[in-house]
Design brief:
It contains twelve helices and 18 strands. It is α+β, with helices and mostly antiparallel strands. The protein binds one RNA strand through α3 and α4.
Length: 426
RNA sequence: GGAAGAGUGGCAGAGUGGUUGAAUGCACCAGUCUUGAAAACUGGCAAGGGUUCACGCCCUUCGUGGGUUCAAAUCCCACCUCUUCCGCCA
């Protein structure tokens, strides 16, 4: 959502920014809708003012015991006009909102140009991918050989894109989640939250999954409940409709939850293995800041995610997404990509976005400085810290021991796995 | 799921058809007093929007959406949320 007054003031600037995402000019259409709406609004308000004034007069006359029939008839005659105008104005208002809610966020200035993911820019790299002399096994081969990863039986009950983990791998999944959460709460200063996994339409509108991306969400058929595709939805909506004291910001949340996605648009993509599932666990980070602090917070948050991969000693790189690859609600996004040996490439394991005031406007989430009258929209940020399924894949493949088909337990996970050194088939 | 009650400004809490956007208290802000603080006193204090160069004027909002009326926080309907009781249940 956008500040209409800002668009009125600087239409070209908005169009220029949207053009970076490959969008045609939008502002003239927006402004036309806006103008029509305001015209109707002004007209309507004049009628309402007249009605209010006359009604007050009637009140006065009546309480004085007089006869107000004449004025009452007069006001009565305004009724139809008001009703008609109200109807028109509502439609006009809806039109503006619908138009605006379908347009992506303004990009930060330092987002690199480019139409697609091939133009993303690497900004940091950590660790060195192991050189392997044989063709590396992928996590599916490793997991099935261990007898701890079962796609067939998952498919039997749930269809494709589900998995059953057993024994050591199930425990490692849990260990990763615990390790991430503990690191966030004890080292990064985030507050752990256990939020709802089912949310109402309004919440999804606030974090821009609706109305545009309904196709990728699972929905209850008889109630207004949707399964969250990420706990960004639950965590960010905590501040919806709130006015927060600036001194209480930033707020930094983290949650460990399952995430549910239809993956409607990715048929045939990553069909093998755990990379892309309908249901997966993720530890999420969400920050809510004052407008002047979000850029700083974005770097901090990305650093928190990177820290986890460093502690796991997994090779990764950090990229900044180019204009064409930056998501709908984000003004700037860093992706962390972890080395996946079987694919001999880096794959996304975290995405950290600064949404600026985009979600805040949709959620009506504001803040106020002490002693000041004016409110401002907060800035919201979200990032994975990290996707558990993909982290498990990365650990399995990077810590695989071809000598016995086992998987070494990363140092930082050992305490979460009862001191276990290595997962071996039983 | 059934029954009863309730949803008003940051909080508490008045208000059952007519200058009520809303008494009062607390909190908060500014000032007076004080060496300073407290107390006391004085004043201020909802959000969003339209219009205006501006002062200002106006509109909307008392859980949400409809309705009745010249006029709704106040009456009617539906929904949501909360509380209590009953039922069921991890």
């Amino acid at each position: 959502m956008f500040d209409l007054r800002a668009i009125r003031k600087n239409p070209e600037q908005f169009d220029k920014n949207w053009a970076r995402r490959g969008l045609s000019a939008q502002s003239s259409e927006i402004l036309a809708l806006d103008e029509a709406n305001r015209g109707l609004q002004t007209e309507l308000q004049e009628l309402l003012a007249a009605r209010n004034e006359k009604s007050k007069e009637i009140g006065k006359i009546k309480s004085a015991g007089g006869d107000a029939d004449a004025i009452m008839a007069e006001v009565s005659s305004l009724k139809d006009k008001i009703a008609k105008l109200e109807e028109q104005q509502k439609i006009a208002d809806e039109a503006v909102k619908t138009k605006l809610s379908g347009i992506p966020n303004i990009l930060a200035e330092d987002v690199p140009d480019g139409p697609d993911e091939d133009h993303n820019v690497e900004i940091r790299k950590y660790g060195t991918p192991k050189s392997l002399n044989s063709i590396p096994k992928d996590h599916v081969d490793i997991g099935e050989a261990l007898g701890m990863m079962d796609f067939a039986n998952a498919a039997k009950m749930s269809g494709s894109r589900f998995v059953i983990l057993n024994a050591g791998l199930a425990r490692m999944e849990r260990a990763l989640a615990q390790f991430f959460l503990d690191t966030h709460t004890s080292e990064h200063g985030l507050t752990e939250v256990s939020p709802p996994l089912l949310v109402k339409s309004d919440a999804l509108y606030g974090t821009n999954q609706l109305p545009k991306f309904a196709d990728d969400l699972f929905k209850s058929s008889d109630t207004d409940h949707w399964l969250i595709p990420t706990s960004e939805v639950s965590l960010t909506n905590i501040v919806a409709e709130e006015i927060i004291d600036e001194e209480d910001l930033p707020r930094r949340y983290t949650a460990f939850t399952p995430c549910f996605r239809k993956e409607a648009g990715s048929a045939g993509k990553d069909t093998r293995g755990m990379i892309r599932q309908h249901q997966f666990y993720k530890v999420e980070m969400v920050s809510v800041t004052t407008p002047d602090k979000s850029i700083e917070e974005h770097e901090r948050m990305t650093g928190c995610a990177e820290n986890l991969l460093k502690k796991l000693e997994l090779p990764f790189r950090t990229i900044v997404l180019c204009a064409g690859d930056t998501g709908f609600g984000a003004s700037k996004t860093y992706d962390l990509e972890v080395w996946v040996p079987s694919q001999e490439t880096y794959r996304e394991i975290s995405s950290c976005s600064n949404c600026w005031d985009f979600q805040a406007r949709r959620m009506n989430a504001r803040c106020r400085a002490k002693g000041e009258k004016d409110t401002k929209f907060v800035h919201t940020l979200n990032g994975s810290g990290l996707a558990i399924g993909r982290a498990l894949v990365a650990v399995m493949e990077n810590y695989y021991d071809p000598a016995d088909g086992g998987v070494f337990v990363p140092e930082v996970l050992k305490s979460y796995m009862g001191g276990l050194e290595k997962i071996l088939s039983c």
